[in-house]
């Protein structure tokens, strides 16, 4: 692998972040808002799972942000508009990361002290989930709409491939 391949590390890590943190948001909301849906044992297990997803999600987010900056400074295929879009994706990413980092530390520090998740925490993690979804949407837009980091498909001389 050469140095120019490194930007492609970013898409590997971002999907862990999105999966783990969105699952954590859903589990926190379910356990707190619909506790009667589950037996006590299941509820406790889901609650533990919600925290581990949050902590691992934040860990992967550190890698996603680091590789994001690497991609930001090394992607070759982009113009002024896609550069502008990259800036917005970066800003949403840093906002979501900051929020989840605080929530992760908060949840870790207070784990021994309180058993019930506060409504303030719940609202904050819900907003974090929305911000992360917007970050991911903007990341996908960069690649699939603006072709950032994409190598062009080779142009063939022959007839176009049109069966799908
Ligand atoms: C929580 C952190 C982040 C998440 C969840 C995230 C999410 C994403 C997603 C889903 C994509 C599309 C990947 C694909 O489908 O191929 C993407 C692409 C991209 N992101 Fe991020 N991102 C994050 C942080 C950052 C940061 C901090 C930067 C810049 C400083 C950045 C720069 C880029 C660039 C340049 C691309 C297009 C090139 C590539 O895919 O490598 N990202 N991001």
Can you describe this structure?
The protein is mainly α and 164 residues long. It has one domain (9-144). It contains four helices and no strands. Helix 2 (40-74) packs antiparallel against helix 3. The longest helix is centred in the middle third of the chain and has 35 residues, at 40-74. The chain starts with 9 loop residues before the first helix and ends in a 20-residue tail after the last helix. The mean pLDDT is 90. Protoporphyrin IX containing FE binds next to helix 1, helix 2, helix 3 and helix 4. Residues 7, 10-11, 14, 17-18, 61, 64-65, 68-69, 71-72, 75, 86, 89-90, 93-94, 96-97, 135-136, 139-140, 142-143, 148-149 line the site of protoporphyrin IX containing FE (HEM). Keywords: Membrane, Transmembrane, Transmembrane helix. Residues 8-151 form the DUF2231 domain. InterPro entries: DUF2231_TM.
Task: Summarize the model shown.
This protein is mainly α. It has helices at residues 10-33, 40-74, 80-109, 119-144.
What's the helix and strand layout?
Layout: H1 10-33, H2 40-74, H3 80-109, H4 119-144
Helix pairs in contact: 1-2, 1-4, 2-3, 3-4
The structure holds protoporphyrin IX containing FE (HEM).
Protoporphyrin IX containing FE binds at residues 7, 10-11, 14, 17-18, 61, 64-65, 68-69, 71-72, 75, 86, 89-90, 93-94, 96-97, 135-136, 139-140, 142-143, 148-149.
Bound molecules: protoporphyrin IX containing FE
Residue stretches low in confidence (pLDDT < 50, at least 5 long) are none
Q: Quick one: how many beta strands?
A: 0
Beginning-to-end CA distance, first to last residue: 33 Å
Q: Which structural class do you get from the secondary structure elements?
A: mainly alpha
Q: How many domain regions?
A: 1
> What is the count of helical runs?
4
User: In what range is the share of β-strand residues?
Assistant: under 5%
Helix residue percentage: over 70%
Shape: elongated
Specify the biggest β-sheet: none
Q: Element order, helices and strands?
A: HHHH
Mean pLDDT: 90
Determine Rg (CA atoms, Å). 19 Å
């Amino acid at each position: 692998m050469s140095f120019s391949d490194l930007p492609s590390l970013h898409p590997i890590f971002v999907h862990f972040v999105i999966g783990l943190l969105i699952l954590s948001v859903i589990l926190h909301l379910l356990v707190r808002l619909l506790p009667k849906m589950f037996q006590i044992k299941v509820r406790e297990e889901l609650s533990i799972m919600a925290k581990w997803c949050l902590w691992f999600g934040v860990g992967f987010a550190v890698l996603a942000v680091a590789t994001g900056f690497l991609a930001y400074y090394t992607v070759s295929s982009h113009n002024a508009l896609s550069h502008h879009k990259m800036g917005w994706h970066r800003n949403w990413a840093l906002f979501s990361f900051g929020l989840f980092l605080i929530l992760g530390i908060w949840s870790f520090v207070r784990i021994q002290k309180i058993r019930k998740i506060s409504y303030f925490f719940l609202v904050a993690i819900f907003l974090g989930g929305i911000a992360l979804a917007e970050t991911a949407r903007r990341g996908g837009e960069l690649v699939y709409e603006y072709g950032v980091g994409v190598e062009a498909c080779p142009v063939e001389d022959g007839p176009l491939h049109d069966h799908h």
